[in-house]
Specification:
Layout (H helix, E strand, L loop, with lengths): L2 H24 L2 H17 L1 H17 L4 H7 L3 H16 L7 E6 L5 E8 L2 E6 L4 H12 L3 E5 L5 H18 L6 E3 L6 H6 L8 E5 L2 H10 L12 E5 L5 H13 L8 E7 H17 L3 E4 L1 H10 L5 E3 L14 E5 L13 E7 L2 H11 L4 E5 L3 H10 L4 E4 L19 E2 L7 E2 L6 E8 L7
Helix pairs in contact: 2-5, 2-7, 3-7, 5-6, 6-7, 10-11, 11-12
């Protein structure tokens, strides 16, 4: 498309979404749920067909030399498709918050004042890699009574188009406007510049992808942005702690999957349990080929307490990648490691004196996404919950649970590290606004 056509196309998407948003806001709960259940059925009925389209994206990404974690994010496996279908059903089963009135109070003047939850209107979603985001965004848009314009990455264009066709088929079957969910059909980046600068059509932009994408969108947007920049998630092993439980949780938080933003990237261990815990988790990481970038104390403990045959010590702190599962690659951490979101089999490790230092380290280096404490001390847990300044704060469980589906939201539009409007996994309520409603019986102001 040339520049003129891109502009015309963007404005057509926007005006169609604006019209559809009015119809979606008026749609009944039953009709919205009908669309969600239809979408779940269509997903299950089209698993094989979706994988054919997805294979085109995988082949193209592999040929282009895309990094393995990014290729992994592209995959539409039967399990991923089933999770999307279950998310649609979970959303359909949830109460409809649209039209809900909260905080209604009688005032001395006689009027009653409350707030009603309403759809935002139109949101634009710009995302990379994961094609399942198409379903998550569409299903949340339907349930929250919004319209959306989705612009996925070029690396997933065939998968996204196939999924969007199913979404529009479900909308049609339910009697809702097909323009309520529109997928941008071009990979031209000029369309993104148009989309983020149309406040007459778009009420909020939600970027979901790498730091570069999100920073670019935030800098150029002329409409509000709901964003997160990084997923530098921490797990702190406290003293006292159930070390068997800690071993299981830390292993899961780091190695369950390396590519998601809720995977642990930093491990903090209290000095009182470091000698007992670090050699155990070091063996686990060595067996799975996880590189460990350590502060001097953690490095000394791991070097001294692990079998020499399993230790491959290096001072090269720049190497990132899969290493042989027969050795643990140990190195001295650099300052940049404490900030890093690796999205790879690499973890930074630090021994801290105790809770105060753990909280201070997390609040300094964390991306304020998700951080966890593993402890047997109730007061330590409560302080961690209050004082760690992150969107999700956890006690005695894996950071991998920081997910809209796992939180019971049905799906998520993303995980926001902002503090205004929406924070953490953004579900239905994050795509709504509140307006004041005032009820009277002829009262006048004196």
């Amino acid at each position: 498309m040339n520049a003129l056509n891109i502009t015309e196309y963007a404005h057509a998407l926007g005006s169609q979404a604006k019209v559809a948003s009015t119809l979606m806001a008026a749609a009944s709960t039953a009709i919205k749920n009908r669309a969600l259940l239809a979408l779940a059925s269509l997903l299950r009925a089209n698993v094989d067909a979706l994988q054919v389209d997805n294979a085109l994206d995988i082949e193209r990404a592999t040929t282009a030399g895309l990094a393995a974690p990014l290729v992994d994010r592209l995959r539409l496996t039967p399990k991923v498709i089933e999770t999307c279908a279950q998310g649609c059903e979970q959303l359909a089963a949830m109460p409809d918050v649209i039209g809900e009135v909260i905080g209604m109070k009688q005032q001395p003047s006689g009027i009653r004042v409350g707030q009603m939850r309403v759809p935002i209107g139109v949101f634009g979603m710009i995302f990379e890699s994961r094609p399942n985001v198409t379903i998550e965004a569409a299903s949340l848009s339907i349930k929250s009574g919004n319209a959306c314009i989705l612009r996925g990455g070029s690396e997933a264009i065939d998968s996204n188009k196939a999924l969007a066709r199913l979404v529009q088929q479900a909308l049609l079957e339910a009697g809702l406007p097909v323009d309520a969910v529109q997928l941008v059909q071009t990979t031209d980046r000029a369309l993104v510049d148009q989309l983020i600068a149309m406040p007459q059509y778009v009420d909020v932009i939600i970027p979901r992808g790498g730091k570069g994408l999100i920073e670019r969108i935030s800098a150029g947007a002329k409409v509000p942005v709901i964003k997160h920049l990084d997923g530098n998630c921490h797990v702190y092993v406290d003293d006292p702690c159930d070390l068997a439980m800690a071993l299981k949780v830390v292993d899961n938080a780091k190695t369950n999957k390396y590519s998601p933003c809720n995977a642990a990237e930093s491990l903090l261990v209290a000095r009182g349990v470091a000698q007992a815990f670090l050699p155990q988790i070091g063996l686990v990481f060595a067996a799975k080929g996880v590189e460990m970038r350590c502060d001097p104390v953690a490095l000394q403990i791991l070097q001294s307490n692990m079998p020499p045959a399993l230790v491959n010590t290096t001072q090269d702190a720049t190497k990132i990648g899969v290493i042989a599962a027969t050795s643990a690659q140990l190195s001295l951490a650099q300052e940049s490691d404490w900030y890093a979101e690796y999205l790879a089999p690499v973890i930074s490790i630090k021994v801290v004196p105790g809770l105060d230092e753990a909280i201070a380290h997390i609040n300094r280096y964390s991306s304020h996404h998700t951080d966890a404490i593993l402890t047997r001390d109730h007061m330590h847990a409560q302080r961690f919950l209050r004082e760690v300044d992150s969107a999700s704060v956890m006690v005695n469980t894996s950071t991998r649970f920081a997910d809209g589906f796992e939180y019971g939201l049905g799906a998520e539009i993303g995980i926001s590290t902002d503090k205004f409007h929406a924070r953490g996994p953004v579900g239905i309520e994050g795509l709504t606004s509140l307006k004041y409603v005032v009820l009277g019986d002829g009262e006048v102001r004196i």
